[in-house]
Specification:
heterodimer; A: mainly beta; 46% strand; B: 238 residues; mainly alpha; 0% strand; globular
Chain lengths: 387, 238
Amino acid sequence: MENPQIPRPRPRNLVLLGCVLLVLLMLGAEGLRWMRSAHAAAQPSLAGAVRGGPVTLTELSSTHIPAPHGMPSAHASSMTPLPGNRMLAFWWAGSRESGPDVKVYASTWANGAWSAPWMVASRESLGAALGFGVRRIGNPVAWTDRDGKIHLYVVATGLGGWAASRIAHIVSNDQGASFRVRRVLPTSPLFNTSALVRTSPLALSDGGWWLPVYFEIGNKYPMLMAFDAQGNPTSLARIGRSTSTLQPAIVAVSKTEVRALLRDDSEARRMQHAASLDGGASWHDLPALDLPNHNTSMAAIRLSSGQFLMLHNNAADDASARSVLRLSISDDMRTWRTVADIAKGKAGDEFSYPTLQQVGDELHVTYTWQRQAIAHHRYRINAGGTI
Amino acid sequence: MNLPDLSTQMLYGRLGWAIVLATLACALWRRSAPMSRVALAAVMALSLAAMALPGALSPAWWLGLAFQYPSGLLVGCCLLRLAERWNGFRRSQVMPQALAGVLVVSGALLYLDAVGFLARGFYYAGFGQAAPLLGIAAAIVCVLAIVRGHARGPAAALLGALSLFALLRLPTGNLWDALIDPLLWAWAVVALLAAALRRTGRRASDRLAEPESDPVPAPGSAPGLRPLAAEHFSSLKE
């Protein structure tokens, strides 16, 4: 009696089967993702605008945010509103810039006063959560999403100086009391280094936001990372083609027209400018504004009146690059007129890295005061007058 | 733009760096003595154990600090190199010149763009909607290469990197990061330079071996003399 021959699968057929199954699995995973993803890019939100007409500003208060004990250096504040006309501020403080003890601190503005500061991120806390080392901590930028979660973006460097920076995205579900690390944002193919944040995000119509980002190894250029309403990144793009601008302050002029005011690192020393006419899908550089910019950061917002406010350093003949902090206003983002110098000192003084937030009819301003503290000014915005 | 979970990234980082570190350690092994399978397994086990150490004790802490995550293709190529050593292959087929050439050119364009000289947005396209389609298309090409037996090893490494990207979006959610990183790019540059040097060396030795007068008879005219032709002009003989 003959044994029946059982045909054995040939190794080549098994390899083919395995490969085909793997490709089918990949196709399935990509198909599922595609069905779940949003396919239309959101446009900038103009919610709250436009009440129309000129406005006046009346100063309500001027103070310093309480500094953490034993931290003589403070810089790079960011604000985000909380429910009930409250405000949450973040900044870094430590013994010196880039020092190992630099941490990000927060404080809440409520009932006309700032709370005692508390620590929200350090290189130790970020390193432990990320599973790899963080060498130094830098600028924080905050955003409150429509569910009330606070998204904080913190510059955290790898091996090297600020040019080796990455951006850690951390989230709070309890109005800033505690934070959980979500991820390091992927921004560059060069070991994911040299991406930083400094300026405030801009709201989008779908509940998402744009986070202004910039690159700085040798060349410096601005970028924009878009997030959906849940805080997941949806796209990353470069702003213009310049190689000597950074820290974009983004303002929506209309649902399709967006402007970016840019810190200038070139010999021109003028405030640089870029625009998008398709809701941020593409950007082109514009001629520099007729405003000096000696490599300093600025902040800009669109008021609910429809006018644009900018807080920027104005380097006059008798001043140094950061010794005058000026509030300017514009109807069209091209021509600016001075409202007031909200901080003015002698050459060598520093009032820098400003941030603006409008909450109801109040304008909140914070900035770095002499690298020692974060100053806070509050103004009432009155409709009907002229600034 | 779909990004991987941080926990998945952390696991990938530790495993990936363990494989890369083990490959580097094996590369430092004496070339004259082949590495035994026991030694290879010990190196791999040590590397994995080191990566599993907590916090700053782990090399993954420092490698992540400097380089973040290795690309999927770098991990795949390192795995392939380890497999070659396991099977006792002395001559590596991991980085054929065609693959090295593609990596060097695409990496150069990508990095020039990333540092701001080109402004073409190559890296951003790695997050775009076309990236998954490109990844699937490249995976199908890899499958064809594997089935037909063309450059099976590199094709398998590439297929592995593409499947990690498609299934888990590792390492970062960007297709470029699955396919290239500066370390792999440097490997490709070195491979191409080494190949160019070998070619130059061969040409030089061929020129030395060529007769300056009294040319060698054309092949076929006197086949019996051919093996002696080179020896005839050897300085050792004289």
